[in-house]
């Protein structure tokens, strides 16, 4: 059914980012405590949602981590009476919320109101039989629920709602997009289908909390926190979980004994460098997960990388995970993007659309290589939004000017200060629609002078490249680093060509005629690999773009030849 003005489409454009209908991913699927027949929680009102979005990054993370510590994960039989399961669990304490999902069978995430309920449940749970394999007696918060008399209890089974943990295929997405009434609506539909759901976010924090249980065996004051796409509001369903082992709580103890006539401190192992300490810590935690961690598989210790890490598959939640140590600058980058994502609903909608477009056309890839990364692409979108008139989001320097005393952070000699309170940032006066922004993004970067200029989010303006990398995007904090240094010239030229082609399609298409002919239009047309459909039209369109690209390459070669000749003369 098409989205109509004044209906769900307008709600989306107001930034609520939810679609009506039983199949919407935006609807709250978590069920509150009580009988299983109780309806799913209602969608929060607009005032409640705005209130939630105004919370600082640190406040949101603290709430999520606390929530995860009160949560268990239960592997369930394929046929189950939901009400009876909840009744049993309620005997150990109030079940605040729960949901079911499919991952190697049916699993249930259960959130208790109190941590003590988990201890009560653990005391009542049995150790698995060791008839075939000897078990490692580590009591985690992962359980298996079985039926003693499955034949009779199958008669009492109730249908379960399973929360989706992956996004729909692009083909199905295109079909949905064609039913919208504008490109803006299409972009919000894509956002709703691809963004992390409430349930998926809870699973990510639970995965971190379960790893933390192992880490605390060695480091009692440590925490394990997610960073990157899991927390910056730009995460996509199916993305990996980046997490880091944080010792900042340990550092707080260092100042406690400074007062008075004496000092007392812990005796600790001393190592010649922080890097060596990080490598040894990760090596031990990696071995611990590999040998004793329920559901932790394919553990790889990559300790000689620039940022040492442990990669592993967390099978109970279905995530691929990367664990590092005290990645403070990465956390600041996550918070910066969180702020940008919260300031204006158009920001996230544009980023998700551009990243989906880039993936369809092979401009990005989950494997390391010479292509543009999602992080680099996100930074390009942010820079574009800073360059609008008036700007849609502020520069990093402007956010730094608003920073209070608590917001000041110097990490490794780099100034990572910026305001954390969203209420201090004035909303933009820019009223451009997403239709305009999408087209203008392709136009802007299709004609960007990458040979001369670089992208700087701190200044919010084009500056001369400090070195000759094809694509130069300044790291927002570590200003001596280029976050897109991996991108080579052919990949950049491919991006430029795709951007120009996309701008051409949006400018020249006849939406009405395409809808009559039941052809993809708007964003949907951009999500079909160019040349697969209407190949003859594609060839005609590419002639102009191809000739411009060739002309640009010839000009570049002439400049290089002239430069070489001058050097030869100089010699």
UniProtKB/TrEMBL annotation:
GO cellular component terms, semicolon-separated: mitochondrion
Residue intervals of the PAP-associated domain: 436-471
Region (Disordered) location: 17-54
RL domain residues: 56-124
InterPro entries: MTPAP-like_central, NT_sf, PAP_assoc, RL
GO MF, one example: poly(A) RNA polymerase activity
Requisite cofactors: Mn(2+); Mg(2+)
CDD domains: NT_PAP_TUTase
Highest taxon above the source species: Eukaryota
Coiled-coil regions listed: none
Keywords: Magnesium, Metal-binding, Transferase
A Pfam entry, by short name: RL
Single GO BP term: RNA 3'-end processing
Residue ranges occupied by any Poly(A) RNA polymerase mitochondrial-like central palm domain in the UniProt entry: 183-341
Keyword flag Chloroplast: no
PANTHER family named in the record: POLY A POLYMERASE CID PAP -RELATED, POLY(A) RNA POLYMERASE, MITOCHONDRIAL
UniProt-recorded name of the protein: Mitochondrial poly(A) polymerase
């Amino acid at each position: 059914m098409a989205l109509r003005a004044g209906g769900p489409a307008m709600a989306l454009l107001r930034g609520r980012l939810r679609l009506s209908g039983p199949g919407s991913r935006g609807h709250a699927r978590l069920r509150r405590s009580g009988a299983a027949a109780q309806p799913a929680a209602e969608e929060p009102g607009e005032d409640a949602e705005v209130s939630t979005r105004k919370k600082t990054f640190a406040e949101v993370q603290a709430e999520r981590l606390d929530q995860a510590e009160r949560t268990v994960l239960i592997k369930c039989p394929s046929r189950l009476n939901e009400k009876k399961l909840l009744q049993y669990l309620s005997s150990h304490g109030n079940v605040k919320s729960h949901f079911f999902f499919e991952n190697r069978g049916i699993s249930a995430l259960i959130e208790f109101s109190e941590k003590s309920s988990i201890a009560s449940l653990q005391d009542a749970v049995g150790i698995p039989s060791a008839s075939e394999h000897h078990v490692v007696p580590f009591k985690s918060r992962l359980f298996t629920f079985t039926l003693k008399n499955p034949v009779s209890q199958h008669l009492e089974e109730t249908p379960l709602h399973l929360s989706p943990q992956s996004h729909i295929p692009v083909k199905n997405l295109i079909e949905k997009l064609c039913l919208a009434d504008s490109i803006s609506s299409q972009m919000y539909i894509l956002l709703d289908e691809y963004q992390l759901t409430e349930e998926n976010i809870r699973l990510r924090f639970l995965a971190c909390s379960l790893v933390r249980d192992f880490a605390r065996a060695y480091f009692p004051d440590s925490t394990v926190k997610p960073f990157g796409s899991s927390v910056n509001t730009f995460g996509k369903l199916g993305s990996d979980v980046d997490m880091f082992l944080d010792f900042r709580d340990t550092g707080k103890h260092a100042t406690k004994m400074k007062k008075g006539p004496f000092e007392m401190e812990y005796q600790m192992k001393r190592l010649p460098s922080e890097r060596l300490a990080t490598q040894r810590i990760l090596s031990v935690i990696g071995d611990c997960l590999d040998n004793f961690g329920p559901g932790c598989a394919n553990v790889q210790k990559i300790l000689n990388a620039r940022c040492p890490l442990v990669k592993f598959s967390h099978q109970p939640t279905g995530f691929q995970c990367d664990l590092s140590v005290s990645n403070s600058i990465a956390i600041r980058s996550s918070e910066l993007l969180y702020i940008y994502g919260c300031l204006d609903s158009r920001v996230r909608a544009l980023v998700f659309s551009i990243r989906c477009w880039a993936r369809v056309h092979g401009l990005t890839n989950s494997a390391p290589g010479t292509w543009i990364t999602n992080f680099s692409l996100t930074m390009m979108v942010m820079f574009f939004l800073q360059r609008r008139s008036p700007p849609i989001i502020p520069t990093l320097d402007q956010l730094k000017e608003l920073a209070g005393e608590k917001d000041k952070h110097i990490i490794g000699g780099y100034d990572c200060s910026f305001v954390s309170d969203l209420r201090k940032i004035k909303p933009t006066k820019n009223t451009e629609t997403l239709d305009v922004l999408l087209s203008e993004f392709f136009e802007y970067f299709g004609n960007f002078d990458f040979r001369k200029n670089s992208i700087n989010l701190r200044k919010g303006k084009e500056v001369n490249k400090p070195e000759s990398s094809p694509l130069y995007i300044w790291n927002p904090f570590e200003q001596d680093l280029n976050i897109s240094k991996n991108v080579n010239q052919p990949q950049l030229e491919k991006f430029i060509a795709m951007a120009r082609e996309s701008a051409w399609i949006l400018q020249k298409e006849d939406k009405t005629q395409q809808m009559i002919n039941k052809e993809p239009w708007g964003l949907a047309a951009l999500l079909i690999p160019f040349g697969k459909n209407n190949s003859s039209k594609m060839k005609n369109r590419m002639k102009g773009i191809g000739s411009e690209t060739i002309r640009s390459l010839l000009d570049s070669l002439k400049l290089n030849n002239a430069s070489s000749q001058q050097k030869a003369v100089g010699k």
